[in-house]
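Hey, quick one: can you model this chain's 3D structure?
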Amino acid sequence: MSEGINPIRIVIADEHPLSRQGLRGSLTSEPDFHIVGVASDGPGVAQLVSEEKPDIVLIDFALALKCELKALCGSVEQLRPLRLVVTLKTIEKTYLVGAFRLGAHGVVRKGSASEELHKSIRSVMAGQYAVENESVGVLVEALRESLALGDVTKSPKDYGLTRREMDIITKIASGRSNKEVGEEFAISERTVKHHLTNIFGKVGVNSRLQLALFAVNQHIAEAPASSESLHAVAPDQDASGAC
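Sure thing. Here's the predicted structure for all 243 residues.
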């Protein structure tokens, strides 16, 4: 590992030995990545997260379904933010939406080029959501459909959103961080977080990414045109309690 580099600490979690081997081989070639452990099942993931306090858990979707991922995130929240990058065999609506609902910050298709995997991990570590270019259209379509179910006739006013909350949604959807939103409206980050907690409860979402897609669906913001637009939806923290 190169001197002076603050490495990204990564746990690899996959039930299949060949997948674990391939991921490890790809990641160890990068000087800013440090593999702190490899797991093949849920208890193994939990143990590594507890003992090693990684920055990233790179986990297969099928295994992620078996793990208490929110509990894992909460177990290290006070020490360092834990971010999840989920690997999928195929990019389909159900799996893609399911991955983000599990708490994923990034989704990578198995078999993607190493450069795509490395880019996604670095983007997630930088506080962004990461999906491959060809996956963006699927994700936007799927989340818009999901958020629209049962609410087709609702307007933003029907959710009881205040003018300030509408303004904050617009800024979050365009990629602003809590700090940037606070500076723009001359309010504290704590006040922004309070607004976001209220907004999440009112519109029925649980992440900033879903909030951005809600904004698109309700015509509060323009639809993301590229992966860069989605990458810009920075998750200061995720919404299961903290924003």
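One thing worth noting: Residues 140-231 form a domain with the Rossmann fold fold (CATH 3.40.50.2300).
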